[in-house]
Specification:
Elements lengths: L1 H25 L3 H28 L4 H35 L9
Keywords: Membrane, Transmembrane, Transmembrane helix
Protein name: Multisubunit sodium/proton antiporter, MrpG subunit
Pfam family, one: PhaG_MnhG_YufB
Length: 105
């Protein structure tokens, strides 16, 4: 049962990655694309890594627990660095004078 739940989490995580990729292609401007990449890829990492951690822990040993702990630390690292990097890139875009997309009549 745990293997099915972990597989479902990994698949849902990859769906979020796919959504972020489509957002990078389909959205009109720099800021919208970064929003799609930052939000959906972070959620995709969380779900897919949660699925991997759950899969590793289903046969509980100390080595598997340490592997799951490393996976959780990767998720924490991504949760800290992804918004920071997105903010830095947006700040660079603002300083470079990039204007947001507006709908013209």
């Amino acid at each position: 049962m745990i293997i099915w739940i972990s597989a479902l989490l990994i698949i849902i995580g990859f769906v979020f990655f796919l959504g972020g990729s489509l957002g990078m292609i389909r959205l009109p401007d720099f800021y919208s694309r970064l929003h799609a990449a930052g939000m959906l890829d972070t959620m995709g990492v969380f779900l897919s890594m949660a699925g991997l951690a759950l899969y590793v822990v289903h046969d509980f040993t100390l080595g598997n627990f340490l592997s799951a702990l490393k996976i959780i630390l990767i998720v924490v690292f991504v949760f800290i660095t992804s918004p920071t990097a997105t903010h830095a890139i947006v700040d660079a875009g603002v300083r470079a004078g990039l204007k947001p997309w507006t709908k013209k009549n």
